[in-house]
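Quick question, first post here. What does this chain look like in 3D?
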Amino acid sequence: MDTLTHIVLGACIGEAVAGKQLGKKALLLGAIAQNIPDIDFIASFWLPTTSDLLAHRGFTHSFLFVILFSPLLAWLSGLCFPKVDMTFRRWLLFWGLQIFIHIFIDAFNAYGTGWFEPFSHYRVSFNTMFVADPIFAAPLALAFIVLLVLKTASPKRKAWVRIGLGLSILYLLLGIAFKLCVDNTVKNELQNKHMVSKRFFTTPTPLNNLLWYIVAENDTGYNIGYRSVFDKTSDIDFHYAARNDSLLKLAEDKEGVNRLVRFSQGYYHAEQWHDTLVFNDLRFGEICGWHYLHPRFVFYYFLQHPGDNNMVIQRGRFARWNKEELMSFLKRIFS
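> Answer (accepted):
Ran it through. C-alpha cells below.
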C-alpha cells in the first residue's frame, strides 16, 4: 500500500493498542511502526533497478523480519520510554502487530510480498486491492484526524478507532468478494470461448475495486480484458499480447532480464519501440486500457538504456489521465 495509507492505518492501530498508555504519542509511534518494513527503499540508492525491484518487499516484508525485529524494537521502546506504563509484552504486541499488518496488507495488491524470505523467493499477491485506494484509506484518515483533535481522555476515541478500522476491513472483504465473482466469470468465459489458458489473474484497476483488469496466459502470450462488477452480461472483450520471448535474447544484460522475468512472475511482454528494446510487466496494468485498444503497459523497462529506468513502477501509473480519461473510466465502470 502507499505510504499515506500505512500512516493513517498505523496511527489507528497505535491508538487501539496503546492509546491509553501513550496518549496521542500512540498515533505518531503507530505511524512510524507501520512504515518500518519500507526501510528497504534505502537499497534503491545503490542497487541497480532490476535488483531493487526484487529487494523491495523482500526480507523486510517477511515473517522472519517480524520475528527478529519486533522484540528488538520492544526492548528499545522500554529503554526510550521508561516512565510509560507498558510491559515488554505490550510493546512487543505494539511493534509486532504493526509490522505484521503492514506485510499482510501489502500482499493484497499486485507487486508481490516476500513473506517467506530468505527461505523462499515466492511472492504473495492476492490481487484484491490497488496499491493506493482512497476508499480504503478514507475512513482511516477521517479517524486519524478526529483522534488528533479529541482530548486524550475522551471516551469517543475508541468509537472512532472502531469506525476507521471497521469500515476499511469491510471494504477489504468486499474486494475479496468482488474478486471471487470476477474470477468465476473469467473462468466460465474462457471455457465458453474455447480459449486455452495455462493460468490467469485478475486485479483492480486504479483507485477502486469495481473495474478489474484480466490477463489470461497461453503458450505464446496473453489475452487481456476488463470486467466491471456492474457489467450486465458475462461477455468479456479480450485483446492479445504476444510474449515475444525471442526479443529478450537481444538484450546484453542477461542477469537483469532474468531478474525482470522473475519479478514479473512470468507475466511479461517484450517489444521494440523504434530502436529500443522494452520489457513490460503485465501485472501493473495498461495505460487507460479500458479506453484504448492495444495501449502501452504501465510498467515498462528500457533494456538497452538502464539509466532511463528511474521510478519505473510509478511513471506509467497515471500517464494520459485527464478529465476525458476519468469520464471514460467511470463510464466503463458503470455502463
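Residues 156-192 form the longest helix (37 residues).
The chain has two domains: 3-175, 193-335.
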